[in-house]
Hints:
11 helices; three-stranded antiparallel sheet; elongated
Amino acid sequence: MNEEQTEELVTASLFERVVAFVIDLALFNFLLIVLGHILIRLGLINNQNTLSILVSVFYFVFFVYLVLFTAKGKTFGKMLVGIEVVNKDGKSNLTLKQSLFRVLGYILNFITLSGGFLLGFFNQQNRTLPDFLASSIVISTRKKSSSEEIAFSILGTITICAFILLAYYIFFKAPSPFDQKKLALAKTQLENLAYLEELHKENFGYYTEDLRRLSLISGDGVQLNRDLQNAFRRLGFKIGLSADKRSYRIEGYAKDSKETLVFKEK
Protein backbone atom coordinates (compact mmCIF):
# COMPACT_ATOMS: atom_id res chain seq x y z
CA MET A 1 0.00 0.00 0.00
CA ASN A 2 1.56 3.30 -1.06
CA GLU A 3 1.37 6.65 0.72
CA GLU A 4 -1.38 7.96 -1.57
CA GLN A 5 -3.55 4.97 -0.74
CA THR A 6 -2.74 5.33 2.95
CA GLU A 7 -4.09 8.88 2.95
CA GLU A 8 -7.36 7.59 1.46
CA LEU A 9 -7.96 5.14 4.28
CA VAL A 10 -11.25 5.61 6.08
CA THR A 11 -11.31 4.44 9.68
CA ALA A 12 -14.27 2.29 10.66
CA SER A 13 -16.80 3.65 13.11
CA LEU A 14 -17.01 2.19 16.61
CA PHE A 15 -20.53 1.00 15.87
CA GLU A 16 -19.36 -1.04 12.86
CA ARG A 17 -16.68 -2.65 15.00
CA VAL A 18 -19.13 -3.58 17.75
CA VAL A 19 -21.55 -5.14 15.27
CA ALA A 20 -18.73 -7.17 13.70
CA PHE A 21 -17.68 -8.52 17.10
CA VAL A 22 -21.27 -9.43 17.98
CA ILE A 23 -21.61 -11.35 14.71
CA ASP A 24 -18.51 -13.41 15.57
CA LEU A 25 -19.69 -13.97 19.13
CA ALA A 26 -23.21 -14.92 18.04
CA LEU A 27 -21.84 -17.38 15.47
CA PHE A 28 -19.70 -19.18 18.05
CA ASN A 29 -22.50 -19.22 20.62
CA PHE A 30 -24.83 -20.73 18.04
CA LEU A 31 -22.28 -23.44 17.24
CA LEU A 32 -21.78 -24.05 20.98
CA ILE A 33 -25.51 -24.51 21.56
CA VAL A 34 -25.87 -26.87 18.60
CA LEU A 35 -22.85 -28.94 19.61
CA GLY A 36 -24.00 -29.02 23.23
CA HIS A 37 -27.44 -30.34 22.29
CA ILE A 38 -25.90 -33.01 20.06
CA LEU A 39 -23.51 -34.19 22.79
CA ILE A 40 -26.31 -34.22 25.37
CA ARG A 41 -28.50 -36.31 23.06
CA LEU A 42 -25.61 -38.73 22.53
CA GLY A 43 -25.14 -39.00 26.30
CA LEU A 44 -21.62 -37.60 26.17
CA ILE A 45 -22.58 -34.72 28.48
CA ASN A 46 -24.49 -35.79 31.57
CA ASN A 47 -23.40 -33.38 34.30
CA GLN A 48 -22.60 -29.73 34.94
CA ASN A 49 -18.83 -30.29 35.13
CA THR A 50 -18.67 -31.81 31.65
CA LEU A 51 -20.78 -28.98 30.27
CA SER A 52 -18.47 -26.41 31.90
CA ILE A 53 -15.46 -28.07 30.28
CA LEU A 54 -17.15 -27.89 26.87
CA VAL A 55 -17.91 -24.19 27.31
CA SER A 56 -14.34 -23.46 28.44
CA VAL A 57 -12.83 -25.31 25.47
CA PHE A 58 -15.20 -23.60 23.06
CA TYR A 59 -14.34 -20.11 24.27
CA PHE A 60 -10.65 -20.95 24.13
CA VAL A 61 -11.21 -21.89 20.47
CA PHE A 62 -13.03 -18.56 20.02
CA PHE A 63 -10.03 -16.75 21.51
CA VAL A 64 -7.65 -18.54 19.12
CA TYR A 65 -9.98 -17.80 16.20
CA LEU A 66 -9.91 -14.08 17.02
CA VAL A 67 -6.13 -14.04 17.29
CA LEU A 68 -5.51 -15.89 14.01
CA PHE A 69 -8.09 -14.09 11.90
CA THR A 70 -7.30 -10.66 13.34
CA ALA A 71 -3.69 -11.24 12.23
CA LYS A 72 -5.07 -11.77 8.72
CA GLY A 73 -7.09 -8.57 9.03
CA LYS A 74 -10.63 -9.92 9.00
CA THR A 75 -12.76 -12.20 11.12
CA PHE A 76 -16.04 -13.46 9.66
CA GLY A 77 -17.92 -10.61 11.33
CA LYS A 78 -15.52 -7.95 10.04
CA MET A 79 -15.76 -9.37 6.55
CA LEU A 80 -19.57 -9.11 6.58
CA VAL A 81 -19.52 -5.57 7.96
CA GLY A 82 -16.77 -4.48 5.57
CA ILE A 83 -13.94 -3.51 7.91
CA GLU A 84 -10.35 -4.65 8.41
CA VAL A 85 -7.63 -4.45 11.09
CA VAL A 86 -4.24 -3.15 9.94
CA ASN A 87 -1.10 -1.63 11.42
CA LYS A 88 -1.57 1.98 12.51
CA ASP A 89 0.51 3.06 9.50
CA GLY A 90 -2.11 1.41 7.27
CA LYS A 91 0.53 -0.51 5.29
CA SER A 92 0.42 -4.09 6.57
CA ASN A 93 -1.43 -6.71 8.60
CA LEU A 94 -0.69 -7.34 12.26
CA THR A 95 1.80 -9.90 13.49
CA LEU A 96 0.52 -12.75 15.66
CA LYS A 97 2.01 -11.00 18.70
CA GLN A 98 0.16 -7.78 17.89
CA SER A 99 -3.02 -9.74 17.27
CA LEU A 100 -2.68 -11.50 20.63
CA PHE A 101 -2.31 -8.18 22.46
CA ARG A 102 -5.29 -6.81 20.59
CA VAL A 103 -7.55 -9.70 21.59
CA LEU A 104 -6.34 -9.48 25.20
CA GLY A 105 -7.48 -5.87 24.99
CA TYR A 106 -11.05 -7.13 24.52
CA ILE A 107 -10.83 -8.70 27.97
CA LEU A 108 -9.50 -5.46 29.45
CA ASN A 109 -12.37 -3.62 27.79
CA PHE A 110 -14.82 -5.87 29.61
CA ILE A 111 -13.02 -5.52 32.95
CA THR A 112 -13.10 -1.71 32.63
CA LEU A 113 -16.86 -1.74 31.89
CA SER A 114 -16.11 -0.90 28.23
CA GLY A 115 -14.01 2.09 29.30
CA GLY A 116 -11.16 0.96 27.05
CA PHE A 117 -13.52 0.78 24.10
CA LEU A 118 -15.02 4.19 24.79
CA LEU A 119 -11.56 5.70 24.24
CA GLY A 120 -12.44 5.49 20.57
CA PHE A 121 -14.85 8.40 20.92
CA PHE A 122 -11.98 10.72 21.87
CA ASN A 123 -9.52 10.37 18.99
CA GLN A 124 -9.79 10.95 15.26
CA GLN A 125 -8.93 7.40 14.22
CA ASN A 126 -11.45 5.81 16.62
CA ARG A 127 -8.65 3.83 18.27
CA THR A 128 -9.68 1.87 21.35
CA LEU A 129 -7.59 0.22 24.07
CA PRO A 130 -7.00 -2.94 21.94
CA ASP A 131 -5.73 -0.70 19.12
CA PHE A 132 -3.29 1.10 21.38
CA LEU A 133 -2.02 -2.22 22.76
CA ALA A 134 -1.50 -3.66 19.26
CA SER A 135 -0.52 -0.44 17.41
CA SER A 136 -3.44 -0.99 15.05
CA ILE A 137 -6.32 0.82 13.41
CA VAL A 138 -9.56 -0.50 11.94
CA ILE A 139 -10.41 0.69 8.44
CA SER A 140 -13.48 0.47 6.27
CA THR A 141 -13.06 -1.69 3.15
CA ARG A 142 -16.20 -0.52 1.36
CA LYS A 143 -18.49 2.49 1.35
CA LYS A 144 -21.60 2.05 3.50
CA SER A 145 -25.04 3.18 2.46
CA SER A 146 -26.95 5.60 4.68
CA SER A 147 -29.32 2.82 5.77
CA GLU A 148 -26.35 0.63 6.76
CA GLU A 149 -24.83 3.46 8.78
CA ILE A 150 -28.11 4.01 10.61
CA ALA A 151 -28.48 0.28 11.31
CA PHE A 152 -24.90 0.00 12.58
CA SER A 153 -25.40 3.05 14.81
CA ILE A 154 -28.57 1.64 16.39
CA LEU A 155 -27.24 -1.89 16.84
CA GLY A 156 -23.87 -0.65 18.04
CA THR A 157 -25.39 1.69 20.64
CA ILE A 158 -27.66 -1.05 21.98
CA THR A 159 -24.75 -3.51 22.16
CA ILE A 160 -22.38 -1.09 23.90
CA CYS A 161 -25.02 -0.35 26.56
CA ALA A 162 -25.71 -4.08 26.95
CA PHE A 163 -22.00 -4.88 27.44
CA ILE A 164 -21.64 -2.12 30.05
CA LEU A 165 -24.66 -3.39 31.99
CA LEU A 166 -23.48 -7.01 31.71
CA ALA A 167 -19.99 -6.17 32.95
CA TYR A 168 -21.44 -4.11 35.80
CA TYR A 169 -23.69 -6.98 36.84
CA ILE A 170 -20.91 -9.59 36.72
CA PHE A 171 -18.40 -7.51 38.68
CA PHE A 172 -20.70 -5.82 41.19
CA LYS A 173 -23.99 -7.70 41.43
CA ALA A 174 -23.56 -11.35 40.48
CA PRO A 175 -22.48 -13.74 43.25
CA SER A 176 -18.82 -14.74 43.14
CA PRO A 177 -17.83 -18.39 42.62
CA PHE A 178 -17.15 -18.54 46.40
CA ASP A 179 -20.64 -17.26 47.19
CA GLN A 180 -22.22 -19.59 44.65
CA LYS A 181 -20.47 -22.54 46.28
CA LYS A 182 -21.62 -21.52 49.77
CA LEU A 183 -25.21 -20.99 48.60
CA ALA A 184 -25.24 -24.36 46.87
CA LEU A 185 -23.94 -26.02 50.04
CA ALA A 186 -26.65 -24.40 52.17
CA LYS A 187 -29.39 -25.44 49.74
CA THR A 188 -28.06 -29.00 49.67
CA GLN A 189 -28.24 -29.20 53.45
CA LEU A 190 -31.82 -27.92 53.37
CA GLU A 191 -32.72 -30.70 50.96
CA ASN A 192 -31.04 -33.26 53.21
CA LEU A 193 -32.96 -32.04 56.25
CA ALA A 194 -36.21 -32.03 54.29
CA TYR A 195 -35.56 -35.67 53.40
CA LEU A 196 -34.97 -36.50 57.08
CA GLU A 197 -38.18 -34.68 57.99
CA GLU A 198 -40.10 -36.87 55.54
CA LEU A 199 -38.56 -39.99 57.05
CA HIS A 200 -39.53 -38.78 60.52
CA LYS A 201 -43.13 -38.15 59.45
CA GLU A 202 -43.28 -41.56 57.78
CA ASN A 203 -42.17 -43.23 61.01
CA PHE A 204 -43.95 -41.07 63.61
CA GLY A 205 -46.76 -39.34 61.75
CA TYR A 206 -45.53 -35.74 62.21
CA TYR A 207 -42.62 -33.42 61.51
CA THR A 208 -40.13 -32.44 64.21
CA GLU A 209 -38.01 -29.44 65.10
CA ASP A 210 -35.72 -31.53 67.27
CA LEU A 211 -32.36 -31.87 65.53
CA ARG A 212 -31.41 -34.74 67.82
CA ARG A 213 -34.26 -36.85 66.45
CA LEU A 214 -33.24 -36.00 62.90
CA SER A 215 -29.64 -36.84 63.77
CA LEU A 216 -30.69 -40.31 64.90
CA ILE A 217 -32.59 -40.88 61.67
CA SER A 218 -29.56 -39.76 59.62
CA GLY A 219 -27.43 -42.45 61.21
CA ASP A 220 -24.53 -40.06 61.81
CA GLY A 221 -25.47 -37.17 64.07
CA VAL A 222 -21.91 -35.88 64.33
CA GLN A 223 -21.61 -35.56 60.56
CA LEU A 224 -25.03 -33.91 60.30
CA ASN A 225 -24.08 -31.23 62.84
CA ARG A 226 -20.75 -30.69 61.13
CA ASP A 227 -22.48 -30.24 57.75
CA LEU A 228 -24.90 -27.71 59.23
CA GLN A 229 -22.05 -25.75 60.82
CA ASN A 230 -20.22 -25.64 57.49
CA ALA A 231 -23.32 -24.50 55.60
CA PHE A 232 -24.96 -21.95 57.93
CA ARG A 233 -24.01 -18.98 60.08
CA ARG A 234 -23.91 -19.63 63.79
CA LEU A 235 -27.31 -19.00 65.44
CA GLY A 236 -28.74 -18.39 61.98
CA PHE A 237 -30.44 -21.75 61.54
CA LYS A 238 -33.83 -22.95 62.78
CA ILE A 239 -36.71 -25.31 62.10
CA GLY A 240 -40.25 -24.05 62.58
CA LEU A 241 -43.41 -26.18 62.69
CA SER A 242 -47.08 -25.45 62.24
CA ALA A 243 -49.36 -25.97 65.28
CA ASP A 244 -50.45 -29.43 64.07
CA LYS A 245 -46.88 -30.39 63.08
CA ARG A 246 -48.10 -31.16 59.56
CA SER A 247 -45.90 -28.56 57.86
CA TYR A 248 -42.48 -27.08 58.46
CA ARG A 249 -40.10 -24.30 57.45
CA ILE A 250 -36.37 -24.85 57.63
CA GLU A 251 -34.29 -21.69 57.21
CA GLY A 252 -30.79 -20.41 57.78
CA TYR A 253 -28.26 -17.80 56.73
CA ALA A 254 -25.70 -19.22 54.32
CA LYS A 255 -21.99 -18.56 54.82
CA ASP A 256 -21.67 -16.46 51.69
CA SER A 257 -20.47 -12.86 51.85
CA LYS A 258 -24.05 -11.51 51.97
CA GLU A 259 -25.30 -14.06 54.52
CA THR A 260 -28.18 -14.91 52.20
CA LEU A 261 -31.32 -16.31 53.85
CA VAL A 262 -32.27 -19.68 52.33
CA PHE A 263 -35.25 -21.79 53.31
CA LYS A 264 -37.26 -24.91 52.57
CA GLU A 265 -40.88 -25.29 53.55
CA LYS A 266 -43.79 -27.64 53.18
